[in-house]
Design the sequence.
């Protein structure tokens, strides 16, 4: 049986064995994304920007999405929130607590946004309305989704601001965004996101625009609140160090697809995809001697209208084979033994602890020196 | 020929005030102190890192070193000359010896100009004043081609516009622009902060190669301690416009003395090992 | 992508933009009418033919005749020359004097900027029409005086817009890079600032052109603009007033001509705004 869109041979049985489609039947996943494909209309024609993203999250899971520009990580977040541009075509399944988001009407999606799923963005100055005082912006989802009146909403806004540890919250209620610092604005954005206690929080580069000392505080705050409320956290970033500290599981994206997915500890212990390996090696680290040349990945990220038919990394890969270019490689399980697929593991819970990679040559990869 | 221990840049007790807009017609205008009594020396062939967060004054310091602003107090001495005491003509002429690379690869190149004009910008003004005669169009083109190949781009790129390039390539163009006059000093203000990790690595490697090849000195401004550690021999740490710690990169990062430096190091994500 | 290719791509995009095409077509019609009328019109505009006055539209007179028997089609054609002339010269004055003032204000900042902007505010404070009437009271009515009045009012418009756009350009790093390269403020203004504000000015110019046409029509209506025997759409409106009940179409023709010209220019301006600005500063 071939995939309808791109003719990649698809085998449900194989996927089942690897553990893609299986969750322990007694736990319904909080968020389940299956074969998410997004097509965008550009001046170069219809392009496939996301090529089949799969993942699952349970309550309390923290999942990181890492990649560079153009890999599709922000697009994935927008697709989940239903915030893609109008002419984007979405196929596949996005299921939040059993509700299929791709089938919902605009109105129903609006009811979900802010209430059941929330998002915080990179640049708080542009994400907040400069003309409204902050309490009003926090009260907005409360009024919209919980039908609160203005007075109770304002009171709740104060509680939320105190919860995000905004200093002198009571005095600051009537402040406008420009009167706050970057870190404070980000706390306001977090309190807006958490106002209705959503099931899932998507944070798209939430601290990239902040100073490193403030970044640490804000991330700790997010982690604390997520743990307290039992939410799922999808953290998007380009910073590997951040992933190490903040999330339990990391997915690496390149060219519109997830190329590697593993528990954080496993990923930092061993990389299976040539791109991930390149990414890790390219970071300047504090221990390096002055003047050490960083390891670079040859070539550059292909433009979206130039994505190869198969693996998007093919032209830059040292291990590329002919069949890599023909079709997007299948996901494979990474473990120390060659034949990793073991049916007797089929009933074990927490299958998501596995380390997957979308590369047929992963076993050839030399471990880093 | 530079002697190995020549002091290239000597910043002496530099302070910078800015007047704030007046709150009302008769009230006195307030002041912001962007820099307070900052001093350091940069030796030829070496690199100095300026570390700081937002509001530390690091970008102001970069602009003062480039003589784009006059300090309220203090001197900026480059190769023995007080830059702010020079006449306009002499200053313009000396600019060929110190150049700058900016943070934003999308804002630092004029979108309406071709790469050839962008890269040869300093050649026009610095050579046409003072002693130099104007370079011919062919000379300009040759120098530009050479500069582009030095940074890993192609001669055919001269004819293109900035929007045809990626962020990393634009930053290379910016480096070519800085390099074309063969300066002794390049001030780099967060040159890789806006780039992806893999692209950042390429540009940093390029900058290190250029330094080896041409004996450049860098004044490297960044908030990223790992990058500073890689690129710089000496470091000063700025907080609220003041130098809180200064020393060699090794000393500062392995044995930080000042609580602020320690806090910066502790805040680096992913170090909890 | 070299310049001819970019131009080709721009033209292709322009042709797909509905507003722009519609507007440009109308403006082209206007320009053709005016050019043609320089050499030929169905009847000479001075020809008075009283026996044939207030005739309805026919094969000989496509839009009929007015109260003095003049052919309306010819009046409209020749009248378009006026409108175009006023538009070009008035906008030309605005661009020629307003843009340099705006650039000066932006480059110098400080008290120079204050003076220029306050002078602009001062000029804005005078209603355009009133200043026109003032000028005609002093210098006598006519085309030249009305063009001057409208032109003077365009100067602060362009000065303000240029200064705002130029300020935005000065805040970008490439002007800092140019200063670091040793360029003087004036060289930077000419080489960097002006090309980057050009698109804003082009769009504003089409808007001001439309406004100039309307202003001229208003002045001519009041009898202060083009004097007879030179035809003018505004004056045709005035003349049509007395014939409102006998021949209402007399007012419709010039009215539609004015409205169409203004519409065409506005559509073209809208289209240009879309085509020129966001795409060229394309981000990744």
Sequence:
């Amino acid at each position: 049986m071939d995939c309808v869109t791109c003719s990649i041979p698809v085998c449900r049985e194989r996927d089942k064995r690897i553990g893609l489609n299986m969750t322990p039947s007694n736990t319904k996943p909080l968020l389940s994304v299956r074969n998410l494909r997004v097509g965008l209309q550009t001046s170069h024609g219809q392009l496939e920007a996301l090529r089949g993203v799969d993942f699952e999250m349970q309550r309390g899971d923290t999942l990181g999405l890492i990649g560079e520009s153009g890999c599709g990580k922000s697009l994935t977040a927008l697709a989940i929130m239903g915030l893609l541009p109008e002419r984007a075509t979405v196929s596949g399944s996005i299921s939040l607590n059993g509700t299929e988001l791709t089938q919902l009407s605009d109105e129903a999606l609006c009811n979900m946004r802010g209430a059941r799923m929330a998002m915080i963005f990179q640049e708080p100055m542009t994400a907040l309305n400069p003309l409204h005082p902050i309490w009003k912006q926090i009260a907005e989802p409360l009024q919209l989704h919980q039908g609160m009146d203005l007075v109770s909403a304002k009171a709740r806004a104060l509680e939320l601001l105190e919860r995000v540890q905004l200093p002198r919250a009571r005095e600051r209620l009537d402040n406008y965004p420009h009167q706050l610092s970057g870190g404070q604005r980000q706390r306001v954005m977090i309190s807006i996101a958490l106002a209705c206690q959503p099931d899932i929080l998507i944070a798209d580069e939430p601290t990239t625009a902040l100073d490193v000392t403030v970044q640490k505080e804000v991330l700790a705050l997010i982690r604390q609140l997520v743990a307290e409320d039992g939410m799922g956290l999808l953290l998007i970033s380009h910073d590997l160090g951040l992933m190490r500290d903040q999330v339990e599981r990391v997915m690496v994206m390149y060219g519109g697809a997830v190329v590697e997915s593993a528990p954080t500890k496993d990923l930092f212990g061993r990389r299976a995809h040539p791109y991930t390996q390149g990414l890790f090696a390219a970071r300047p680290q504090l221990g390096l001697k002055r003047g050490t040349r960083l390891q670079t990945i040859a070539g550059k990220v292909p433009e979206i209208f130039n994505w190869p038919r198969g693996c998007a990394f093919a032209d830059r890969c040292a291990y590329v084979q002919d069949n890599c270019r023909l079709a997007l490689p299948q996901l494979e399980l990474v473990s120390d033994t060659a034949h990793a697929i073991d049916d007797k593991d089929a009933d074990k819970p927490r299958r998501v602890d596995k380390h997957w990679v979308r590369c047929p040559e992963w076993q050839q990869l030399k471990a880093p020196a | 020929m530079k002697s190995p221990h020549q002091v290239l840049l000597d910043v002496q007790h530099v302070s910078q005030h800015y007047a704030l807009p007046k709150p009302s017609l008769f009230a006195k205008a307030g002041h912001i102190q962007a820099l307070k009594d900052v001093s350091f020396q940069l030796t030829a062939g070496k690199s100095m890192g300026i570390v700081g967060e937002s509001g530390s004054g690091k970008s102001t310091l970069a602009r003062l070193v480039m003589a784009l602003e006059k300090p309220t107090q203090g001197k900026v001495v480059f190769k023995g000359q007080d830059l702010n005491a020079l006449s306009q003509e002499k200053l313009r002429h000396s600019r060929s010896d110190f150049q700058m690379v900016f943070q934003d690869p999308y804002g630092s190149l004029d979108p309406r100009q071709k790469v050839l004009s962008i890269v040869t910008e300093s050649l026009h003004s610095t050579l046409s004043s003072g002693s130099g005669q104007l370079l011919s169009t062919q000379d300009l083109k040759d120098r530009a081609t050479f500069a582009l190949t030095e940074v890993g781009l192609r001669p055919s790129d001269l004819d293109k516009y900035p929007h045809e390039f990626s962020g990393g390539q634009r930053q290379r163009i910016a480096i070519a622009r800085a390099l074309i006059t063969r300066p002794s000093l390049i001030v780099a203000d967060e040159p890789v902060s806006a780039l992806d990790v893999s692209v950042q690595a390429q540009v940093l490697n390029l900058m290190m190669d250029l330094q080896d090849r041409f004996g450049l000195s860098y004044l490297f401004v960044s908030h990223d301690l790992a990058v500073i550690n890689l690129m710089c021999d000496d470091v000063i740490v700025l907080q609220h416009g003041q130098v809180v710690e200064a020393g060699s990169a090794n000393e500062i990062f392995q044995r930080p003395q000042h609580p602020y430096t320690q806090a910066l190091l502790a805040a680096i994500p992913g170090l909890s090992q | 992508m070299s310049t001819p290719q970019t131009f080709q791509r721009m033209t292709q995009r322009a042709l797909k933009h509905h507003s722009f095409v519609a507007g440009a077509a109308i403006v082209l019609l206007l320009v053709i009418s005016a050019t043609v009328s320089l050499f030929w019109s169905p009847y000479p505009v001075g020809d008075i033919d009283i026996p044939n006055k207030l005739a309805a539209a026919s094969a000989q007179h496509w839009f009929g005749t007015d109260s003095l028997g003049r052919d309306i089609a010819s009046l409209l054609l020749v009248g378009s020359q006026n409108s175009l002339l006023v538009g070009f010269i008035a906008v030309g004055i605005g661009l020629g004097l307003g843009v340099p003032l705006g650039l000066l204000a932006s480059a110098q900042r400080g008290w120079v900027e204050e003076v220029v902007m306050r002078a602009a505010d001062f000029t804005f404070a005078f209603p355009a029409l009133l200043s026109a009437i003032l000028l005609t009271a002093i210098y006598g009515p006519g085309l030249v005086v009305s063009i001057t009045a409208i032109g003077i009012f365009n100067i602060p418009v362009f000065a303000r817009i240029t200064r705002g756009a130029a300020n935005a350009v000065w805040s970008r790093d490439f002007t800092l890079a140019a200063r670091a390269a040793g360029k003087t403020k004036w060289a930077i203004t000419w080489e960097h600032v002006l090309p980057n504000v050009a698109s804003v000015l082009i769009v504003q110019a089409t808007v001001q052109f439309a406004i100039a046409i309307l202003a001229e029509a208003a002045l001519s209506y009041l009898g202060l603009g083009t004097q007879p025997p030179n035809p003018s759409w505004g004056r045709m409106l005035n003349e049509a007033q007395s014939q409102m009940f006998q021949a209402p179409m007399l007012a419709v023709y010039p009215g539609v001509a004015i409205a169409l010209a203004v519409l065409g220019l506005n559509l073209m301006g809208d289209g240009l705004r879309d085509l020129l600005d966001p795409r060229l500063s394309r981000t990744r």
User: Anything to note?
Assistant: Confidence is low (pLDDT under 50) at residues 280-284 of chain C. The two ends of chain C are 17 Å apart (CA to CA). Chain C touches chain A at residues 284 (CB under 8 Å). The longest helix of chain C spans residues 72-108.
